[in-house]
Amino acid sequence: MTAPPPDFRGERLRGGLRIAGEVLITLGLVVLLFVFYAVYVTDWTSARSQAAASDRLRAQWERPAPPTAGPAAEGEGFAELYIPALGPDFRYTVLEGTDSATLAAGPGHYVGTALPGEQGNLAIAGHRIGKGAPFGDLDRLTACDALVVETASDWYVYRVLPMRDQVSGWNPAADPRCAGVAPIGGPYQGLVGQEIVRPEQGEVIYPVPWRQRDEVPPEQRTRLITLTTCHPRWSAQQRLIVHGVLVKQYPKDPVHRDLRPAELEES
To answer: Residue 246: which of 166, 175, 155 has the closest Cα?
Structure first.
């Protein structure tokens, strides 16, 4: 009687599972290496670039005749951004431009938008993951949080506008930080402190957000700041937007140049 042929199905199944397991382990290692590179390696290189940009900017400011206000060369720093609510050490040199090389070194100023303190909209972009992730925690900001911008000659204090669910019952007297912060009417009707938009909705950085550039005369524009970053984390499907309004300006003391606004001590 002839013996039945050996059944190799179990062995083939085990072999297939082993190969699949090895592939999954390899893919997992690749993903881990990518995450390590995207978060840590790019953070290290960006930190060096940011420190160099900050050193160059401070050296300019310390000259006997510091540069006058005006657009910087693309890729060069022109201001410092502080967000006390994100920690006492949150300070980044803002660079001119939003190309990939510039944003790898720190927050970038959208070319053509307002400069600090100007009427219009000072618009700044920053990464949320990797490359220093200056805007990694932008979603934590709440109404009236300070957004402080330092230039060679002045300190400008902007504050986050009320959130959408706060507009109808807004009471600035409830928080002393909210002096000068309120829902803005007229052409700014509906503008709130935080919104999520599609990547192509560049209207958020217009001089008057969501209005055509020539729809509101320059003299009727208020002074805004807009911060933009990707949303959600690890995705570029949307943009997280934070809007603030200028509430104070402190000219720097030419003698005591190390004096700092009290707003920087907020938490």
So the answer is: 155
d(CA 36, CA 236): 19
Q: Is residue 224 part of a domain?
A: yes
Q: For the whole prediction, is pTM greater than 0.90?
A: no
Q: Using the predicted structure, report yes or no on whether residue 30 has a pLDDT greater than 90.
A: no
Tell me the per-residue pLDDT of 191-220, one tens digit each, with 9 for 90 and over.
999 999 999 999 999 999 999 888 999 999
Encoded tokens for 210: 């969501």
Query: How many other CB atoms are found less than 10 A from the CB of residue 47?
Result: 14
Asked if the model's pLDDT at residue 122 lies above 80, the reply is: yes
Among residues 246, 213, 212, which one has the least CA distance to residue 118?
A: 246
On whether the CB atoms of residues 41 and 97 are closer than 8 A, the answer is no
Averaged pLDDT, 131-155 = 96
Neighbour-count burial for 178-188, b at 16+ CB within 10 Å, e otherwise: beebebbeebb
Distance CA 109, CA 126 (A): 9
Domain count along the chain: 1
The pLDDT, as a whole number, for residue 31 is 44
In a domain? residue 219: yes
What CATH number does the domain containing 53 carry?
Answer: 2.40.260.10
Q: Measuring CA to CA, which residue among 86, 100, 74 is closest to residue 134? A: 86
Residue 45 maps to a domain: yes
H or E stretch covering 223: strand 223-231
Which residues sit opposite 95 in a β-bridge? 77, 108
Report if residue 16 sits inside a domain: no
Which pLDDT score, from 0 to 100, does residue 29 have? 44
The Cα-based distances of 180 to 34, 167, 223 in angstroms read 45, 14, 12
